[in-house]
Amino acid sequence: MGFAMSGGLLAVLAPHGHPLAAPAGPGWATWLRLLVLAALVVLTGAALLRPVAAPGRAARVVVATAGVAVVVGESALAVLAERPPAPVSVVVPLGLALAAVVVAAVGWRFAAAVGVAATAVAGAECGVAWFGDAAQRLVFDRAALLTGVAALAWFAAARPRRALPVHGTAVVVAVVVLAGAAQLTAVDPRRPVAGLPWLRDVVFGETAAQVLLAPHRPGWNLVRVSADGIAVGTDPAALTDTAPRPGTTGRWALVALPEGRGSLWLRRGEDVVSLPVDTGSSRGTPPSTLDMSTADGPECADAALGALLAGRPTGTSCPADDLADSDAEALRAAVGFLARRGHRSATLVADTSPRSVAAGEVVRESLRRNGMSEGHGPVVVVSGWAEADRALRDVAEGRLPGEGSYLAPWLLTAPLLAIPAAAVIPLRENPQEPAALAYVSALRDRVPEATATPAGYAAWRGGPGPGPLRLYAASVVTMQLSTTGHNHDGARWFPGGALAPVSGPLSAADPTPGG
User: Fold this and answer.
1) Which H or E element spans position 376?
2) Which of 300, 351, 352, 444 sits a CA distance of 20 to 30 A from 90?
3) 3-state secondary structure string, 356-371?
4) Which residues contact 445 (CB under 8 A, 6 or more apart)?
5) What are the phi and psi torsion angles at 322 (to 5°)?
6) Which DSSP category does 514 fall into?
């Protein structure tokens, strides 16, 4: 919900497909909004005329009918057209407003008190809707409700006066109310914030999908979709097919976005959807330093997704841009563990990203300080997801000989752990701890097919987790579901597998050679 009337008409008139953030697909939602808008006009006119003349019986019937249309219409939209349905906290102000309308037909003074109370509650709900995650679905309908209740309250409280200030106040109130309603129908509340990544729900026929756009800046952007067979782009006549990326889930495509407002088009079969974009201007939006065209683009986008889930979207940094101190500490501890196990050398897998280059230097220095060399032995992977996917598959298939695989902490992703390469990873937090599982649940609720990642978790949490370093081993297991039919694997960081600690607390300090 929370979609402007003009956008709703466009969604209904579109040949195929519609965004879930727009009015619900059936045409009844759009026509119901048109009815609500007409009732708002009636209420505004009544508020304008109320201080001039006392209403007759017919006028009160008309106003009450218009009020019922607004409240009942908005209640139906909140409960039936929203996905998921509106919570009880949304319906409460609707009930109060309906009570004000009913009482208004029999007692104006009592109606004024109830109307003011309903307006206050509805106003609070509008504030929650505007600043909360559901703002883009609810702001239009709740504000329409607030407009109707405010007009009813004024109609109930005002008395005929001949004084010019009273008439002037009536005109100002009516104009403000009508202007607010017009603004809400003319401006699309789904319009994205310039320069910030966004996540949208779309429907293609019977298939629902999620669309992530990052960084939402001029230049190359990554689009992630959760369903197959989708093509994306800025020109509906020249769309790019999405495709899988190694080391991650979903399907991806690079899209070049110009400066300013435009549209992102998506096609699946015969169904076509357009979503608004606004990359900002060179004056109002700082230039982006993110290069989403690199192999680390999906990890950067996943960090943006984690921040979006936490309600603090950002598009100014990428995890692969630099090596965190906590990750460098974890790599030193892993090399120290290998030295204590008697290994004299290790194979290093890195790539050209700034984080990987710095991590490679940390590992090489730690090897030297532990009396080890770079060569054959355990495979230490400090690359990004794409190169790690290739290296782990080489280990699993015997093309890269090694005595187990030791992964950098940022490689804790299900697609990588699912590769049977005897992966071990140094972590400060058990992925099955409540905080980590809360992130997994938030991710699955919003993007069901996505899997948890350290980049998304750190952005969702606001920083790395606490605790001593331990090594965790990944193993793929076959889990027998119970006969109740519940999916007990959904709240796991590694669906279809297990992560278990295989060491006690590790010290990041380098031991003496042979210690």
Assistant:
1) strand 373-381
2) 444
3) HHHHHHHHHHHHHHCC
4) none
5) -155, 165
6) T
Angle between helix 27-49 and helix 5-13 axes, rounded to 10 deg = 150
pTM: 0.65
Query: Is the Cβ–Cβ distance between 382 and 365 less than 8 Å?
Result: no
Dmax over CA atoms of the chain, in Å, equals 99
Six token digits for residue 400: 């890269």
Contact (CB, 8 A) for 140 and 7:
no
Q: Which two tokens stand for residue 249?
A: 């889930």
Tell me the CA distances in angstroms from 283 to 194, 280, 286, 290, 315, one per residue in order: 12, 8, 7, 18, 17
What's the token pair of residue 143? 């504000």
Task: Tokens for 506, please give them.
Answer: 């590790």
Residues sharing a CB contact under 8 Å with residue 306, sequence separation 6 or more, in sequence order: 439, 443, 453, 455, 456, 457, 458, 459, 460
**Beta pairing, strands 198-204 & 207-214:** antiparallel
> How does DSSP assign 246-306, residue by residue?
TTS-SEEEEEEE-SSEEEEEEEETTEEEEEEEE---TTTSPPP---TTSTTHHHHHHHHHH
Tens-digit pLDDT profile for residues 305-334:
999 898 877 656 789 999 999 999 999 999
DSSP 183-252: HHHHS-TTPPPTTS-EEEEEEETTEEEEEEEES-SSEEEEEEESSSS-EEESSTTSPEEPB--TTS-SEE
What single-letter DSSP state applies at residue 506?
B
> For 126-170, what is each residue's pLDDT tens digit?
444 444 334 444 455 555 565 566 666 656 656 665 554 555 555
CB 222 within 8 A of CB 292: yes
- For residue 319, the 8-state DSSP code is G
Residue 187 CA, chain-centre distance (Å), reads 22
Closest CA to 385 of 300, 326, 316: 300
CB 346 within 8 A of CB 364: no
- For 207-256, the pLDDT digits (tens) are 889 999 998 888 899 999 999 999 999 999 999 999 999 999 999 999 99
Which residue in this structure is represented by tokens 């697609």?
A: 415
3-state per-residue secondary structure call for 51-82: CCCCCCHHHHHHHHHHHHHHHHHHHHHHHHHC
3-state helix, strand, coil in the chain (%, to 5): 45, 15, 40
In contact, 361 and 382? CB cutoff 8 Å: no
**DSSP assigned state of 158:** -
Find, among 307, 309, 225, 219, the residue nearest to 265 by Cα.
225
